[in-house]
Amino acid sequence: MDSKNIANAAIMVAMAVIIVLVGAYVPPLFFILFFVPVPISIVSIRSDLLYGILSTILVFIATFLFTDIITASIVAVISAIGIIMGYLIRKGNAPRDVVIETGAISLVGFVGLLYILKIFGINVINSILNDYTQIGNEVLTLYKNTPNEAAIRSMINYMIDTIKILLPSIFVIMIAIVVVANYMLLSRIMTKDQKVKRLPPFMFWRMPYMTGWIFIGALLYQYFVNSSIVASNLLLLLSIGFTISGLSYVKYFMTKRFNLSSAISNFILLALFLFPVTFSLMTLLGVIDTSMNLRKFT
Q: How far is CA 218 from CA 22, 237, 239, 275, in A?
């Protein structure tokens, strides 16, 4: 083994372990756990796949020693995203292909992990749903014997039933966010490395043309034929995609027409995303942009 590669891997493993410890023991910063793939990707890119795998094993062992087996297993699964991403970048794949392929492989691996855990008697989905049910029951205790108790109970039951139906698409969205966020951070850290190219600017993101017809078809099926789990999950995924596409066009419009600074335009985009009415308008705008490419007329 090359001493330079070993030194690089050791530094990245140490960085990954620090990220894990901060995420595990500082609750407000738990989200940084999802950036463990970045140092693992750096090892895989600068060295090779074997070093990335060995680094993941070391991070798993260190996490197990400092935390517990569940946290260590989660970190190992997240680290696998870094291995895949690093391998694809090293192959010379385009940024868009790296993100899509990493997301697809990670999703398949995640589903496989759920089935493996189920064989050993660990049902992750049921555990998540039980946690939500417990939270709902705790909220209900605050409204016990009040005039609003029945309405609150009905709302909580509806939310839990909705989560049960949409859990598959929620997992897909979470994996997509983790993959994209890690790639964007990785591309910023390794700006001098020609292997890691940046994704296209956000204002040029658009959904593929065919997805517009799939969305319309799923919408019609949902409302006029049958309300199915598949259609519901497909609609949620496409709605998020079209909303992002709509926000992307707004970003393009504000930049090209008004030359707004990045900070101001990003604040406006966040506001548009958070409010239900504007969120729906962005979804509609995304569908229109997908079919017409509004940037041609701007």
A: 43, 11, 11, 24
CA distances from 167 to 204, 234, 296 (A): 29, 12, 37
- Closest Cα to residue 37, out of 175, 244, 173, 168? 175
Element (H, E) at 44: helix 37-46
Task: Label residue 277 exposed, middle or buried (CB < 10 Å: 0-12, 13-18, 19+).
Answer: exposed
Cα separation, 55 vs 61, whole angstroms: 10
Tens-place pLDDT, residues 173-217? 999 999 999 999 999 988 777 778 889 999 999 999 889 888 888
Tell whether the model's pLDDT for residue 1 goes beyond 70: no
Backbone φ, ψ for residue 92 (5° rounding): 95, 15
The 3-state DSSP class for residue 246 equals: helix
Query: Global pTM?
Result: 0.87
R_g of the chain computed on alpha carbons: 22
